[in-house]
Amino acid sequence: MTDLRTSDEPLRRTLGLDRRRFLSTCTAVAAGAIAAPVLGAAPVHAATAPAAEPTGTGHALVPADRRGIILYTVRDAIGRDPLSTPLPSGFRAVFEQLARFGYRQVEFAGYGQHANAPGGASLESVAGARLLRGWLDEFGLRAQGNHGFIPPSWPLTTADLDTFKRHLEIANILGMAHMGTGGDPTSSSYKADWDVAADKWNTLGEIARRAGIKLYTHNHDAAYNFLLDGGPLDAQGRPTRSSGIRKLEYFLTVTDPQLVWLEMDVFWAHVAQYKFRAYTAHDGSAQTNVFDPAGLVERYDKRYPLFHAKDGVTNTTNGMGYDMVPFGTGVIDYTTFFSRVGHRNYHNPMVEQDNAPSATDPAQSLRHARIGYDNLARLRRR
């Protein structure tokens, strides 16, 4: 094993860590994944070849050009003042660092950064999008999606429709194939509300299709709970029991597969597997139905062009079943997941870690992004 006491001195100094803190961090999140001094390395440009592929049994489950990251993971780096730190700050510097790690795709989580970064605070404009596109091209990155604006009202207001179309224009400038949101189509548990949401998303999906964009919804655990669609009615006339179909499964059946797409957050899908295992049937009987995330993707095939590749370790005391950790350092079996869903040249996994930023360790999110990339690249079919 590489001696961390000598080989990581440049990285330790760049990150501003004392020796004890640096070594303890390495131990906590798999020291081998950060053994190379990456943050001080030479810049990567579009013409620069990526690092050699790791060796192993079978082919890579995620091809090099499909390895991405959602920028929410490194939001602190994008948002910090570049005048206050030597660490990468703002979109351009972060793009350069992510490309150096090996990433070839990014998913946006908005277009804001620190006011002192190149381009200014907000790049949510045609001019801003052109600037971002130039940096993406410079470092050999492709924008694959964005968690952006989906009109909240229905029927659509003129103002919301105009804003939605402006976001589609930005997406096209950035070269995105997809545009979406981090919210569920509706927070309701009732079939009637999901029918309304389906009408709205079909309409928006048609507008997006005319612009050459696939519209997608990204979902956490709640969307995989059971739909209330029958049984005795409550005092407001709403159903109280379920047929056993999950809310998002129903949404898939009532939306047009050519207009509406989904991004599965694999971590939150496993949280749903832990939380939502039983329901009360229309006849009042208690039923068990354990959610199978990969099975849902298999059944709906290519309606899942995007994934969030997020990992966790078991915790049965927090109500979710998992605690979030850097990708590849947890217990979620991504080798089996990616092997089952197939279409390795179609799906676009985006590494995500909600808790990567640290108030006391400003380099943590980028370090964890490096760990995520390395572990995504190591996945091999058994």
UniProtKB/TrEMBL annotation:
Q: Kindly give the InterPro entries that the UniProt entry links to this protein.
A: IolE/XylAMocC-like (IPR050312), TAT_signal (IPR006311), Xyl_isomerase-like_sf (IPR036237), Xyl_isomerase-like_TIM-brl (IPR013022)
Superkingdom as given in the UniProt entry: Bacteria
Which protein is depicted? Sugar phosphate isomerase/epimerase family protein
PANTHER family assigned: HYDROXYPYRUVATE ISOMERASE, INOSOSE DEHYDRATASE
Q: Which residues does the UniProt record annotate as the domain Xylose isomerase-like TIM barrel?
A: 95-354
Q: Which SUPFAM superfamilies did the record assign?
A: Xylose isomerase-like
What is the residue range of the signal peptide feature? 1-46
Q: Which UniProt keywords apply?
A: Isomerase, Signal
Q: Give this protein's Gene Ontology molecular function annotations.
A: isomerase activity
